[in-house]
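Deliverable D5.2: sample structural annotation.
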Amino acid sequence: MLIDCAGKVLDLSQPVVMGVLNVTPDSFSDGGRYRQLDAALRRVESMVVEGAALVDVGGESTRPGAAPVSVQQELDRVLPVVEWLARELPVPISVDTSKPEVMREAARAGAGLINDVRALQMPGALETIAACGLPVCLMHLRGDPATMQQEPRYADVVLEVHAFLAERVRACEAAGIARERILVDPGFGFGKTLGHNLNLLHHLDRFTDLAAGVLVGISRKSMIGALLDVPAGERLAGSLAAALIAVWRGARIIRAHDVRETVQALRVCAAVLAAG
C-alpha cells in the first residue's frame, strides 16, 4: 500500500516507524526538550537517519489531564518546524492536531498527513481534510484529555472502539475522503484502563479491515509503566515488546520515541513474517 502524502510516498508494504516530535512544554515523555527550533530540527534529522519513515509533529499535549491551547499558540509552535522539515527532508511530515485551522495552515506549510486524536469530529475538520487532500489518521478517544482517564467504562472495548472508527471512516467517505487516504488508531491510553489497552492490543487484527492501515501509538505509555513499574524514560523494552505484538497483529505504523531501536526490532519482525 502506497499513500501519497503531499507528493512524498509512504510505503506500507512493510511496517514502518513514525518518529515523535513534541514541540510542547508539557508532553508526558519529552515535554520542553524540543521547543527551540534548532533542537527540534536536529532531533528530526537524527530520527530520519535512524530510519523513521515519517515524523509526527505535535504542538498541543494530549496526555491525561492536559489543558487545551489556543489555535494561535499551536500554530506558533508547529508551523516553523513543519515549513523547514517539509522543505529539507525526504520523508512525509505528519501534524498531530484536531483543529481545522491548524490542519489548513499545516497543509499549506507542506505537511503530508494529519494525525487527529479526535477523528475529525471538531466542526469543520472533515471539510478541511476533504478540501486539502491530505491523508488522515483517525484515533479513538473516550472523553477529552482533561477527563479521559476518570473511570473509563466499556461493555466490550474492542467492539465499541471498532464501531466508532468504522463510523468515522464512513463519515470521511461521505465527505469525499477516500478510504485509501485513511489510517485508524485504537487510541491506546486515551480513555482506557490497562485492561482495555491489553484487550485492544490482543485483538488488534480486528481493526485491519477498516482503512488503509492501522497506526499504533504505544511508546513509553502508562500501560507499559503499569506493567513494569518504571518511569517513562525506562520503558524502552516494554515499548518494543508492545510494538512487535502490534505488528504481529497487523499494525503498519508504529509511533515511537525511540526510533532506532524500534526500526531494528520491526525489521526482525517483518523478516520473520515474510518467511512465513
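Annotation notes: The CA atoms of residues 22 and 118 lie 18 Å apart. Residues 2-275 form a domain with the TIM Barrel fold (CATH 3.20.20.20).
The annotation will be released with the project's public dataset once the embargo ends.
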